[in-house]
Structure formats: C-alpha cells, structure tokens
Design a protein that fits this description.
Elements: H1 3-28, E1 33-34, E2 55-62, E3 65-71, E4 76-79, E5 86-88, E6 101-105, E7 108-112, E8 119-124, E9 133-139, E10 147-150, E11 156-160, E12 168-174, E13 180-189, E14 214-221, E15 224-231, E16 240-246, E17 254-255, E18 270-279, E19 285-292, E20 301-310, E21 316-318, E22 327-328, E23 345-346, E24 353-355, E25 376-377, E26 386-404, E27 421-427, E28 434-439, E29 448-468, E30 475-485, E31 494-500, E32 508-513, E33 520-526, E34 534-539, E35 543-546, E36 555-563, E37 566-568, E38 574-576
Length: 578
C-alpha cells in the first residue's frame, strides 16, 4: 500500500468518525430539526463589498455520506446527517467557477462547474480527502450551469444553460471514453414569460425583460424524467425552480401543471431556485436551493432545504409552506408533508425590543420584522452589546435562530478567526435572568445559528448578549424565537375573493376579511382543488397580488391564518378561471 492510499484511508476514517459522532451527539441533544437558511460557514467574497455568498447547491451521496457543493464556497461540505456540515478544503477544483455539479459513477465522484471554454471534468475515489484529478478536458464549448445525469442503462447526459435568450440543452457524453460527446446538442426548455408568470423578472414578477433560465437538474423517478430549471434571476425573491416531464432523458419535455415546483416568494428569507433534488438514506426526497438576500450585492445568497413529494399523478412539489420555520429532519420514510412541520410558531414577530445601542437607520425593530434584508446594528461589536425581546405574554420556547448581518465588516475569504460568541438568557419579569443558550466560548463560524432546546422553557423575555463577532458591529437580521403561546387560535378566514386579471391571467388579486388575533396568513393554491401545492406567506396584510400563475390554467385558493398559538386551516376554496 502506498503513502497516498494509506493517507486516503486514514482521512476517510477520521472524517467518517467525526460525522458519525457529531450526528450522534446531535441526536442525543435532541437536535432533530433545522431551520432555513442553513447554518453553513458561508465564505466571504474575495472582492468588495465584503459579503457572504453561497448558491447553486448540489448534494450527492457517496459511501454513506452527503457531499454539498456550492458556488464560491472555497471548498465543499460533508455530512452524515444533513444537520452538521464539515468543510473540506481543496486546491484541486475550480471553486471560483459558478454552479458546481457532481455525480457518483461507480466507485468515483465526478465534478464539473461553469466554464466559458473547454470545460474540465474532475474525478476522485475519495472526496473526503480533497484530492481530485482531471478526468477529461474534451468539452469544446461553453458549459454554463451544468448538471450530470446517468440513466439506469448507464448512459450519461449533460444538461446545461444559463441565458436570457438561449434554452436549456442536453448532450450525451461517453463516460468510457473520457466523456467525449455523442451526437448533437438538443434544446429542451425555452422560457415563455408571457404565459408562465413565474418566469417574469422582478421580486414580484412585474419587471420587463427576458428572464434568465438556468440551473438545470435531472431526476428519474419510476419511468418519468423530471428536468428542473431556475427562473427568473437569482437576485429576485421570486427565484424558483420549474419542472418539465418526459418519458426519455432527451425529451420531448412537457411542462408540469404544478409550476414552479420549488417556490418561496415571501417570509423571513425568500427564494427557492437553482438547486438539486436528491434522496436521503431513508428514501425521502429533498430539494436544496438558493435563497436571496441581495442587499450588499446581488449575489449575496444563502441555502435552503425543503422536503419534496411526488403525488399519485407524478407531479413533483417541494413543501415550502412555513419553509423558514423549524422543519423536522426524519429518521424514517415520511409520506405526509405535515409530518415535516414541527408546529412551532413565530413568537418574536414585531414584538417590542430594547437594545444597548443602535446605529441610525438600523433600529432594534429590524431584528424582529421577519425580513432578512433589514437588520438592527449596535454601535459597536464590543462584548456586552445586547438586545431584549418582550414576547408580551408567557410562551413556551422550543428553539431560537440567530441571524447575523455583517455591518461595517471588511472580511474577505476564509479566516480561521471567523467565529461568533453569544449568550441567550430568559426571564419572566425582566429582573431575574437564567441562562438558556451559552455559546460564549464558541470557536466556530455560525452566521445563522439555530438551536433546538434540549428542554423547552416558559418565558416572557429573551435577551441576546454579544461576546464576540469576527469584524464590524454586532448586527442581527433576525432574532427568531419559536415555540407556542397559551392563547386561542385565530378564527377562520372569511369572505375570500380571487380576481384574475382579464388582460393578464398570470395575475390574481386576493382579498379577505382581516382576522383579529392573526399575525399572518399562508395562501395555499394550485391548479387542482386537491393539489394546493403552492404557498405564499404574508404578515399583517389581508390582501395580496400574485403574478406567478400559468395564464392557461385555472387556479384554486385557500387561506390559513396563524398566530403564536398555531394555525387555523382554511375551509373555503375559491376558484379563479383563466
């Protein structure tokens, strides 16, 4: 056995033990939920302005571990449980290229990223080592947003495309002959925003111009092929993934009625586009996707993970309802979407806050407004800066998510000293405080730290105190407190009206009677009364205009309302004809 083989075996063993023990400690600590955006060590950009970026995710399984590849990550991630991710550094891959993809073929993993000229495919038989070799340099054309797919007959296909004019395309490759091209490139998907409202540009699908269609991904389920793609642009809250279906890997493809199948236009963090769909070790399908902040830079992005289902008719849909609330990570096969939802509600939305200090234009209220694009900033990053949230009533606390914002930060790349230290306390009277979460000695980068409590507590006040931030000011875009109140559920929504625009049936206006005691509403809708797969969540308002419909289909709408105490399901379904 040579030194490289021995090093590879030892590295794999160490990483496997790390992931297994990390996952085991999480289970023993009762950590069986997660909350979007995922708490990854997103790398800071190499250029100005200083901001974090993580996007265009691909997850694959290899030898019992999950591997996650992101754009501009400075490495890739490994996990045994989808909860805890270990960064793997490498100098062998073009990690500054966008939209990486990976695939397992036999006993090796192959990697490909965006390239404007002569794309290279890389290979490894042990991705845990970070050691890769060039497997092919034979792709003689620009490969933008690639995705590799191997069919059951072992034939290999490359899907690619990222353009506001050109289609998503496919070409066959020969994996036995250095991935040489077989046959011709075949167009698969063209944009059509005049019919498909979700492809129209803008946060609210209301801007002119051609959309960007990109980020293809292919899954085969049974005998059907599901070709996924992203639109209308990564900087928009409407960023989503659509899906076309075929009986073969090269088409012809027919658009699914349920589109976009991965869609989260509102909430604390919006966007669910340019991702990959995979199965976990229990057989559950998941879609990992790009979510947008786009404040410091249009490519300021994060990652979200959503359960995926295929109904009896074969329609694929990601379950994004309350998609940035705690989500259960099961240890078995789940058949009902409701089983992924914990039932823990948002307790901190628009609650009164007190702060140690604040910068002009960055008030404390921004930490609880359920909008990741806004944030509270203290006047410094010194130890002792704090924020208190008054929940107004006694509530049961189940979990807390702390989302940091980089205010006056000047970090670029990955630095070993990037870490966050904090202390969270709780109180019933604002005088007597008890420790709830102590990370005052933490040594890791936790930009979106989510903590499920080992044991729930009753509290009326929550205090977050800074001990250390890596640079700049202590700034929080979301101090998000989850659990349950002790009050009544809101009443059901009444007098729901849906008015489809006659001159533009991609657009519908919904209005309903405001419900006392409700803090928000979740609109469920779809093209079939029994398939209300789409979700549109809003706070406070009792009307909304949705511009993401397929102009050629009828739609059905129902609204559920919610508060700190739970969700009241809608009992009325309203039809909107095209």
């Amino acid at each position: 056995m040579n030194r490289f083989s021995l090093l590879s075996i030892l590295t794999t063993l160490v990483l496997f033990i790390f992931c297994q023990s990390y996952g085991k400690s999480s289970k023993n600590g009762n950590t069986v939920t997660f909350c979007n955006p995922l708490n990854l060590s997103y790398r800071f950009s190499l250029d100005n302005p200083s901001r974090r970026e993580g996007a265009d995710p691909t997850i694959i399984q290899f030898k019992g571990l999950y591997y996650l590849f992101l754009s501009k990550s400075g490495g890739y991630f490994c996990s045994s449980d989808l909860l805890n991710w270990k960064l793997i550094n490498t100098n062998d891959l073009p990690l500054e290229d966008y939209a990486p993809t990976a695939i397992t073929i036999g006993d090796s993993v192959y990697f490909l990223a965006c390239s404007v000229d002569k794309a290279k495919i890389y290979a490894t038989n042990d991705p845990s080592t970070g050691k890769w070799n060039v497997a092919s340099e034979v792709l003689p054309f620009a490969v933008l947003d690639p995705a590799l797919f191997q069919d059951d007959d072992k034939r290999l296909y490359l899907y690619y495309g990222c353009s506001d004019n050109n289609p998503i395309q496919v070409v066959e490759l020969d994996p036995k002959n250095r991935f040489k091209i077989i046959g011709k490139n075949i167009p698969c998907i063209y944009s059509n925003p005049k019919v498909y409202g979700w492809e129209q540009k803008g946060d609210y699908n209301d801007q002119p111009g051609n959309p960007w269609i990109e980020g293809s991904w292919m899954n085969k389920v049974g005998e059907k092929y599901y070709l996924q793609y992203a639109a209308p642009g990564t900087e928009y809250k409407s960023y989503s993934d659509g899906v076309y279906v075929s009986d073969g890997p090269t088409g012809p493809f027919k658009i699914s009625h349920n589109n976009p199948f991965s869609y989260k236009p509102e909430g604390f963090i919006a966007g669910a586009g340019h991702g990959s769909t995979f199965r976990d070790i229990y057989g559950n399908y998941w879609h990992i996707a790009t979510m947008t902040i786009s404040q410091k830079h249009q490519f300021e992005r994060r990652i979200g993970l959503f359960p995926v289902f295929l109904d009896k008719g074969g329609e694929m849909h990601a379950n994004t309802g309350f998609g940035d609330y705690p989500i259960t990570l099961p240890h078995k096969k789940i058949s009902n979407p409701i089983d992924f939802f914990t039932g823990w509600m948002m307790l901190s939305y628009n609650k009164p806050v007190e702060v140690s200090s604040q910068l002009d234009g960055f008030p404390g209220s921004y930490a609880v407004d359920e909008n990741i694009k806004t944030y509270w900033s203290a006047q410094s990053g010194k130890k002792g800066e704090w924020i208190i949230v008054n929940l107004l009533n006694t509530c049961t606390i189940k979990a807390i998510q702390i989302n940091y914002a980089e205010q006056e930060c000047n970090i670029h790349g990955r630095l070993s000293e990037i870490q966050h230290k904090y202390l969270i306390e709780y109180s019933m009277d604002r005088k007597n405080w008890q420790v709830l979460i102590d990370k005052s000695s933490n040594t890791t980068d936790i930009p979106h730290d989510y903590v499920e409590l080992k044991k729930s507590v009753n509290a009326k006040y929550i205090r977050l105190t800074n001990y250390y931030v890596p640079d700049g000011n202590f700034a929080i875009s979301g101090l998000r407190i989850f659990g349950k109140g002790f009050g009544p559920l809101p009443e059901r929504v009444k007098q729901l009206k849906a008015c489809r625009q006659k001159n533009d049936p991609r657009v519908v206006r919904l209005e309903w009677e405001k419900v006392p005691g409700a803090i928000g509403y979740n609109i469920r809708y779809g093209t079939n009364k029994s398939k209300l797969y789409q979700n549109y969540q809003i706070y406070s308002n009792n009307s909304v205009t949705i511009r993401s419909l397929n102009s050629n289909l009828d739609y059905f709408f129902s609204i559920e309302c919610f508060n700190e105490n739970g969700i009241t399901k809608g009992n009325e379904i309203v039809t909107s004809l095209f």
